[in-house]
Design brief:
15 strands, 339 residues, binds NADP nicotinamide-adenine-dinucleotide phosphate, TIM Barrel, binds 2-acetamido-2-deoxy-beta-D-glucopyranose, alpha/beta
Length: 339
């Protein structure tokens, strides 16, 4: 035990662990004793005019291969992304041992009454006996194979998540898209605390309150849509865009790209960004952010971009009793529907 403690202590410096997984990112200690790489690859392809984009053969397998070669050790997926089989193939074909890769997947919203069998379905697609992190994708639920709401208390879903961890099917368990009062209720009524909360965090959606709340409760935050509206051509979302002068002056100073500055900023805030790209050069650059450090003044300047502007805002679900976000007076049409 004594020697074990010394070995453990030597890996953990200020809550950051030196990685021994062969990747580029340090690891962060979770509240259950497991560690998570400080950055990961996002794999959701998004929507087009027909609804959720169809995944073409090898469209995700090839970027995941590039990512593993570039030093990523965290891959973020979900049942609903329809790409778990390709991620499984990329991992099997790679030279990186399974135990050095941190796989995150999420519970399908249509399967909240069948957590264990839903997870086993994901494990089968991923071709692995366990995932490193299993998240409740959303606090709201649908009936199986249906667009009809189902009302399932997320406390009941969480009991099955705890069982998934007990059975070793998921090393860590967590939540996504939960709000503060939902997490408070979960903490008050659970045996296993969520290790991770995955929510939108980017320059114009800082999530200051939620991140502080998570930190105070020992929950690590993963930042989805970490670029926010950085590459948007629309005039509606607030700045910054990739041409922003402040971002470019920092990029020049550190000889980095603007996306690298943004991702470095997020990791220095202590959150785990999961930038998505299917371009090799971008995938390689996005992970190469661990050889420079933004100053406290620069961190402050970047924090001033916050406008509490939510980009991922599925208001078409807002009539569900467990809908976690602010409600809109006129909800948006549902992009999941192909019509
Ligand atoms: N839990 C949830 O409910 C939830 C919700 C949303 C997202 N997520 C997860 O979070 C991941 C990331 O979020 P996201 O995909 O919404 O947005 P994102 O990662 O912030 O942005 C992705 C966009 O940025 C572009 N991009 C990436 N790196 C770039 C670079 N270096 N230079 C220029 N453009 C670059 C990508 O284009 P290319 O691909 O063409 O390079 C893509 O259009 C998702 O893939 C998914 O895994 C989870
Ligand atoms: C913005 O416009 C450029 C040039 O037309 C295009 O390449 C890019 O994909 C667009 N970005 C988005 C987020 O639609
Ligand atoms: C959090 O979610 C609950 C539903 O479980 C909702 O009643 C509440 O209004 C939400 N809080 C905020 C701040 O949106």
């Amino acid at each position: 035990m004594f020697y074990f403690s010394i070995i453990l202590a030597s890996f953990i410096i200020n809550g950051r662990c030196q990685q021994t997984d062969g990747g580029k990112a340090p690891r962060i200690l979770l509240n259950d004793g497991n560690t998570i790489p400080a950055i990961g690859l996002g794999t959701f392809l998004g929507f087009d005019e027909h609804g959720q984009k169809k995944v073409e053969p090898r469209e995700i397998e090839i970027p995941v291969t590039w990512a593993l070669n570039a030093g990523y050790r965290l891959i973020d997926t979900a049942y609903i992304y329809g790409n778990q089989d390709q991620i499984g193939v990329a991992i099997r074909k790679s030279d990186v041992p399974r135990e050095n890769i941190f796989i995150v997947t999420k519970l399908d919203m249509h399967d909240q009454r069948n957590v264990i069998s839903a997870l086993k379905k994901s494990l089968h697609q991923l071709n692995t006996p366990y995932v490193d992190l299993f998240l409740i994708h959303f606090p709201i639920a649908f009936k199986p194979n249906s667009e009809e709401f189902d009302v399932i208390d997320y406390l009941d879903t969480w009991k099955d998540m705890e069982e998934a961890k007990r059975q070793g099917l998921a090393k860590s368990i967590g939540i996504s898209n939960f709000n503060i009062s939902q997490i408070e209720r979960l903490l008050a009524h659970s045996e296993v605390k969520p290790a991770v909360l995955q929510v939108e965090v980017n320059l114009n959606f800082a999530q200051n309150k939620l991140i502080k709340f998570a930190k105070d409760n020992g929950i690590t935050v993963m930042a989805y849509s970490p670029f926010g509206s950085l590459f948007s051509n629309s005039s509606i979302p607030p700045p910054p865009r990739v041409h922003d002068p402040l971002l470019n002056s920092l990029a020049e100073k550190y000889r980095k790209t603007v996306p690298q500055i943004v991702l470095r900023y997020l990791t220095q805030r202590g959150v785990v960004p999961i930038p998505k790209s299917t371009h090799k050069d971008r995938i390689e650059k996005n992970v190469d952010i661990f050889d420079f450090e933004l100053s406290p003044d620069e961190m402050d300047m970047l924090s001033n971009f916050n406008k509490d502007y939510r980009l991922v805002w599925p208001s078409f679900w807002q009539d569900h009793p467990y809908y976690p976000f602010e409600k809109k007076s006129k909800p948006d049409p549902n992009p999941f529907h192909a019509d």
